[in-house]
Amino acid sequence: MSQQQKHISKLLKNIALGLQKYEIEELNEALVLLLSKKSDQKSEIDYVIKLVSEIYEITPNTLLTSRSRGKIQQARKLAYCLLHYTLGLSIRQIAQLFNRFHNSVASALKEYKKHEPNRFKVDKEFEKNLTSSKERLFEYINAKT
Question: What is the pLDDT of residues 54-108, one digit of tens each?
Fold first, then answer.
């Protein structure tokens, strides 16, 4: 058995183990996340900015630079969640990207953790936007690879 065949055999065993512990979608998300961390993420970051801007009907520049509250604040929080939880960017990297203090980004991510989609319409809408954005982002990453 060649070295490459051994690596393939090991990979398949690990995939089988992963499928015993996780759903197929969870395993795929983990693989996409790992692959995106190993490559340059500029195109994925740009896609997130474009995607969030489309959802909230604002310009990418407004998303990156505006200090407004309300809709724009929700849009920024969605972008932060996608960049941090889906692409694995650090809070400091996101803060640099948006020219914000890292505490502002951390605060928005903490606020997201406190969401109650079953009680509040705003949280339910945000959760819907986050889910659909994640799906589109994964499709974009899968299409790239």
Answer: 999 999 999 998 787 888 999 999 999 999 999 989 999 999 899 899 999 999 9
Buried b (16+ CB within 10 A) or exposed e, 21-57: eeeeeeeebeebbeebeeeebeebbebbbebbbebbe
Q: CA-CA distances (angstroms) from residue 68 to 72, 74, 76, 89?
A: 6, 10, 10, 24
Q: Which two tokens stand for residue 46?
A: 């740009």
Shared domain check, 84 and 130: yes
- Report how many domains make up the chain: 2
Cα angle: 18, vertex 85, 90; to 5 degrees? 115
Together in a domain, 127 and 66:
yes
Query: Is there a single domain that holds both residue 71 and residue 91?
Result: yes
> Domain span at residue 60?
40-144
In the numeric block, the tokens 């899968």 are attached to 142
